[in-house]
Design a protein that fits this description.
The longest helix is centred in the first third of the chain and has 20 residues. This protein is an alpha/beta fold and 335 residues long. The chain contains 9 helices and 10 strands. Strand 6, helix 5 and strand 7 form a beta-alpha-beta unit. Bound molecules: zinc ion.
């Protein structure tokens, strides 16, 4: 079965000197045809689908601000809107649903939604953190609406997926795991964020320069028991290429080889527990070369290819995170 992708570049969603910009895709876009994956046309999400996660009052307010006050800044991250942002955000969310439905309907083995604006900071009641609508959360709820009973989301963007966590804090049909740099935006995502939802809401806060070795330990010691405990029928991955050591706005330590390793680990989990059903959803990543190399790593893993020859090892010394990982395993009771 094939691997598919959607591509929503939103060229008019742009703001002077803002890192979340169309140029993020400049290196990736010409390379897309070289991957062994088929492009699918995406449709915009409907307002009903957006309301699976967001308060309709927020949706109405965002539509109005884009129509009447854009371009402008709507929060301190800063998050911006332009006159096209509302429709661009509908397309981004719809592109994830398109991928998810293709995987659910067995029209594709797996899928990658390459989209902007990103989504994982957007909460049910507010757009924030460069995000308008929470694309992955909307698609996860859509998968439930299509008949699934349990869906898991693993988020390895450099930032905490606060919006996704907020959407599913009390939803026992969705499990959420986030790895992120501790001490940066948005400030949430500590180990003990959700004491009522142990094993289901899992946060892995990391020190600066945690890289390939630490992430491999996390994949083996936390991703595996998290998925084994929840038994999802489908996995969504919020993949942000800002956890690359060379990202301009964060300080983590993954390399392109690390992104390939991670994609392989989550693919193996999907194979074992979800009949292979997995959808990758782009979040952050602010260096265009890292975005292209990271996306290539995802496509290579998704299509069963070898790693690329890109060599961009983390030049920083990786911190030892074994005691942090033990602490997280203990808190959740992972065996
Ligand atoms: Zn991020």
């Amino acid at each position: 079965m094939r691997t598919v992708y959607t591509f929503v570049a939103s060229p008019n969603h742009v703001y002077p000197d803002h890192p979340e910009r169309p140029a993020r895709f400049d290196v990736l876009e010409p390379r897309l045809k070289a991957f062994d994956a088929e492009w699918m046309e995406a449709r915009p999400a409907t307002l009903e689908e957006i309301s699976y996660v967001h308060n309709p009052a927020l949706v109405t307010a965002l539509e109005k601000v884009c129509r009447e006050q854009a371009p402008g800044i709507i929060d301190y991250a800063p998050t911006y809107v332009t006159p096209s942002s509302f429709v661009d955000a509908l397309h981004a969310a719809g592109a994830v649903i398109t991928c998810s439905r293709a995987v659910l309907n067995r029209d594709a083995k797996n899928a990658f939604a390459i989209i902007r604006p990103p989504g994982h900071h957007a909460e049910p009641e507010s757009a924030m953190g460069f995000c308008i609508f929470n694309n992955v959360a909307i698609a996860a709820r859509d998968a439930l609406a299509q008949g699934l009973e349990r869906v898991a989301i693993i988020d390895y963007d450099a930032h905490h997926g606060n919006g996704t966590q907020a959407a599913f804090l009390d939803d026992e049909q969705v499990a959420f795991l986030s790895t992120h740099q501790w001490g940066i935006y948005p400030g949430t995502g500590w180990i003990e964020d959700a004491p009522h939802a142990k094993k289901r809401i899992v946060n892995v806060p990391l020190p600066a320069y945690a890289g390939d070795k630490v992430y491999e330990q996390i994949a083996e010691q936390i991703f595996i028991p998290f998925i084994e405990a929840f038994k999802p029928q489908m996995i969504f991955i919020s993949v942000g290429f800002d956890a690359h050591w060379n990202d301009p706005i964060t300080q983590l330590g993954l390399s392109s080889a690390g992104y390939f390793m991670l994609a392989g680990k989550v693919m193996a989990l999907a194979e074992k527990h979800c009949d292979g059903r997995i959808v990758f959803v782009l979040e952050g990543g602010y260096d265009p070369m890292n975005v292209a190399n990271g996306a290539e790593a995802v496509f290579r893993a998704a299509t069963g290819k070898e790693a690329s020859e890109v060599s961009d090892p983390n030049p920083h010394k990786e911190p030892d995170c074994e005691s942090r990982i033990d602490e997280i395993r203990k808190w959740h009771g992972f065996k």
